[in-house]
Amino acid sequence: MAAGAGFTDAEGIWHYGEDDTETLMSDLLNLGQQSVSDALTLDRVRLAQLEVFDRVILSRNTATFNLVSGTASQVTDAYLTKTKEVGATASGGAITVTRSGDYWVGASAQFIAQGGGLRQLYVNKNSTTPTTNPLLFDETPGDGAAAVTVSSRRLITLTAGDVLRMFIAQNSGSVLGVLAGASQIPGTFFEVVWAGA
Predict the structure, then answer these.
(1) Cα–Cα distance for residue pair 122/111, rounded to 1 Å
(2) Residues 31-53 pLDDT 10s
(3) Residue 83 counted as domain residue
(4) Domain range spanning residue 11?
(5) 179 secondary structure, DSSP code
(6) Which residue, 5, 41, 147, 186, shows the most beta carbons closer than 10 Å to its own?
């Protein structure tokens, strides 16, 4: 221990001296404990928020369904099964957010292999018309050799009470099957997950 008062050296390290009291060391230790306690409290708050994140996941995990050519159709709960619902609510295939903030919104539809025309996906806000207030859109041509997927996902700021709907369309000239998922990969899904305020 250095004689006299403590000091900070050129590298910024504190050296205690004979004049330093136990109270100073005790205060330093208490400051550290307070910081740990504060960090634990903040972690508990963050964990509580994570446990109540608004999230709704609707997925098609049963049989293929058919979509008529030339008309956009809302993907309702007749075609999607609710696999997770916390905070935000789903009814009739529409998802209503319950608090304002940023949300990851994603949707996907997989069409059977068939050439001709386009396959389209829309997710809109507060409208029952596919092209009104679109938040997400994807379009791709049909393929006679392989199934075609249209999908989109992005971070979107929403207000409590906003209602999101998913629509799909195709103009191949024929009725097309929209595929169910296999294993952990849904062929058709619609999800809204709260990302924070």
Answers:
(1) 15
(2) 555 566 677 777 777 666 555 56
(3) yes
(4) 7-50
(5) P
(6) 186
